[in-house]
Design goal:
By secondary structure, the protein is of the alpha/beta class. It contains 8 helices and 9 strands. The protein has a 7-stranded mixed sheet. A two-stranded antiparallel sheet has the order 4-5. α3 crosses α4. The radius of gyration is 20 Å and the shape is globular. The relative contact order is 0.17.
Length: 313
């Protein structure tokens, strides 16, 4: 008789929702509407069922990590300054990472101890379009090699070390590029949420055995937003159509040229983008990191989360 072993506890939505206990909902329907990403129709009820239990769990994890840090500083005889807790949100393009990150950001800010919570996306660590063109990576935008990974690791190391006023480049989805001269300032948060495609990647290990640091080494708790490959494709195409009728109409938009496409032309182009860029990146780089996440939120075709997997400790 074979016994199937899993590193995760498995929950249906109903089972997970019961773990909310008495965690209060501090958001209202208008907050959810404002925080959710385009074409991600999350409701207030689902936010209560999924994100309140997660908020409760998260507060326990933060306390535990701080207790370990306190024990370490006592042993070393160093100062007892708090170490920021870093929370990562990963998953495919169009999976709903932004919605999860924004809702958790809002909920965590409203915890009774009013922690200072910051949110950063890894888009700011993409090389500029000029650099991508020089490197021949414009068609690989979003792949690991299109990011300044050394700068991202340094940013996380600075945050973990308690360095004040750490600056992050700002990325604009309107111009599809880094905004020259614009920075986001992160000043010693209690909690930092990092959202991005490749944050859980470990990368290649050096053959000489020398120590090497990866971005994932700095992440204390991570979520992977999971969904069926075909659903992800449909959501990407739906989002492309929506943007074509909204953001793409702006003359300053990098994609303004696509606003004049017919429905069939837009469908063909969005499908090409998915098949040539997003799908290969998902299969080669993003999906393989799913098993490294602490929590996996699995979505149905209608975007609702129907299953939760929590790593056993």
């Amino acid at each position: 008789m074979s016994i199937e072993l899993s590193p995760y506890h498995q929950f249906t939505k109903e089972q997970w929702a019961k773990l909310r206990a008495d965690e209060p909902m501090t958001l209202v329907a208008k907050d959810i509407e404002r925080l959710r990403a385009l074409n991600d129709p999350i409701s207030l009820v689902e936010a209560q069922e999924i994100y309140l239990p997660l908020t409760r769990l998260f507060s326990f994890y933060v306390e535990a990590v701080q207790a370990v840090h306190h024990a370490s500083t006592q042993f070393l005889g160093t100062n007892g300054d708090k170490v920021p807790f870093i929370f990562g949100v990963a998953g495919s393009v169009a999976a709903g990472k932004s919605t999860t990150a924004r809702i958790m950001h809002a909920l965590l800010q409203r915890l009774p101890n009013s922690p200072k919570v910051e949110l950063v996306t890894t888009d700011g660590f993409l090389f500029s379009n000029i650099e991508l063109e020089k490197k021949g990576l414009m068609e690989k935008k979003g792949f690991p090699q299109s990011y300044d990974r050394a700068s991202f690791v340094k940013f996380l190391a600075d945050i973990k070390s308690g360095k004040p006023n750490v600056s992050v480049p700002v990325y604009s989805h309107l111009i599809y590029d880094i905004v020259e001269g614009e920075k986001q300032n992160i000043d010693r948060p209690d909690i930092l949420i990092v959202e991005g495609l490749n944050i859980l990647q470990a990368g290649d290990l050096p053959k000489d055995g020398k120590p090497i640091t990866f971005a994932s080494d700095f992440i204390d708790f991570s979520i992977y937003i999971d969904a069926n490959e075909k659903d992800l494709e449909n959501w990407f195409i739906e989002r492309f159509h929506s943007l074509r009728k909204t953001a793409f109409l702006d003359p300053n938009s990098f994609f303004h040229q696509f606003s004049k496409l017919t429905e069939s032309e837009a469908l063909e182009l969005a499908t090409q983008y998915w098949n040539n860029i997003n799908l290969p990146n998902l299969k080669e780089n993003v999906l393989p990191t799913r098993g490294r996440a602490d929590l996996i939120l699995t979505k149905s075709a209608d975007h609702t989360i129907n299953h939760v997997s929590l790593r056993k400790r």
